[in-house]
Amino acid sequence: MVNDTISDMLTRIRNACLVKKRTVLITYTRMTIQIVEILEKEGLINSYEIVSKKNLKKITQNTDVSQESNLKEIQIFLKYYTKYKTQYYKLTTIKDKKAQSALKNQIKLLQGKQGRQKTSCITNLRRISKPGLRIYANNKELPRILGGAGIVILSTSKGIMTDREARFRRIGGELLCSVW
């Protein structure tokens, strides 16, 4: 049983991004589904779907009767972009024209074979407010992550929203996590 579902969700997404997985399963709660909707709206993940988990057996104390329960999970499809790995070659030091053109041809052949790197759109996920230490901020004290390039997800009286939306509505709340 997990006490802090938000930090569990962030850790699962972070670990899946590190090993370059396409999908990750997280537990379904109303809070996590709203955070996943914000991540999709901001373009940090491709999509998500709600999957029901069956065939989970509960064993009662007196008998070995198994009951099926419908637990839900959220399957998140992570978003990656391809980054081509290239190196800088100094061609000005070669004085021979034939050798320089041969090296240019070799570089053109190698550029396709150097490989692609899958780089995650999510660089970092950080939990701000924890169960042991809650952190609140009003609309003037909301932090800006990387000068507005990242987002802070916060829980307000109007629901869960990003820092930009909270500044626009002039409300504050509990800072849940930061994503960039």
UniProtKB/TrEMBL annotation:
Q: Looking at the record's lineage, which domain of life comes first?
A: Eukaryota
PROSITE patterns linked to this entry: RIBOSOMAL_S8
Output the Gene3D superfamilies linked to this UniProt entry.
3.30.1370.30, 3.30.1490.10
**Keyword Acyltransferase belongs to the record:** no
Give yes or no: UniProt keyword Electron transport: no
Q: Which GO terms describe its biological process?
A: translation
Major location category of this protein: plastid
Name a Pfam family for this protein.
Answer: Ribosomal_S8
Give the GO cellular component terms, alphabetically: chloroplast; ribonucleoprotein complex; ribosome
Molecular-function annotations in GO: rRNA binding; structural constituent of ribosome
Task: Identify the keywords attached in UniProt to this record, alphabetized.
Answer: Chloroplast, Plastid, Ribonucleoprotein, Ribosomal protein, RNA-binding, rRNA-binding
Q: What does this protein do?
A: One of the primary rRNA binding proteins, it binds directly to 16S rRNA central domain where it helps coordinate assembly of the platform of the 30S subunit.
Q: Tell me the subunit arrangement.
A: Part of the 30S ribosomal subunit.
UniProt similarity note: Belongs to the universal ribosomal protein uS8 family.
What is the recorded name of this protein? Small ribosomal subunit protein uS8c
